[in-house]
Amino acid sequence: MADITLDAKGLACPMPIVKMTKAVKELSAGDTITVLADDPGFEPDVQAWAEAQGHTLVSLNEEGGVYTAVIQIA
Fold it and tell me: Given CA atoms 21, 37, 74, 72 in this order, what sign does their dihedral have?
């Protein structure tokens, strides 16, 4: 089981989602990815992306303008 972290801070929409999609291709079912992003559009985008892809959005938090999403791969 792999757990990776992707730092997408400083990237504007849609790049955090694009980079996350690319990183997820290297993972297997049950693996998790933690994504850090500071684009305000990331919050609704990651929720919609996880649902559309069938992955589980384990948590999504915002602190100091940085969103941290933990996603478990389906």
Answer: positive
Does the pLDDT value for residue 1 go beyond 80? no
Annotated catalytic residue 13: yes
- Catalytic one of 2, 9, 11, 13: 13
13 by Cβ neighbours in 10 Å (0-12 / 13-18 / 19+) ranks as middle
pLDDT surpassing 90 at residue 11: yes
Distances 66 to 10, 13, 30, 52, 61 between C-alpha atoms, Å: 10, 14, 25, 23, 8
User: How many Å apart are CA 57 and CA 64, to the nearest integer?
Assistant: 21
Q: Which two tokens stand for residue 24?
A: 């997820």
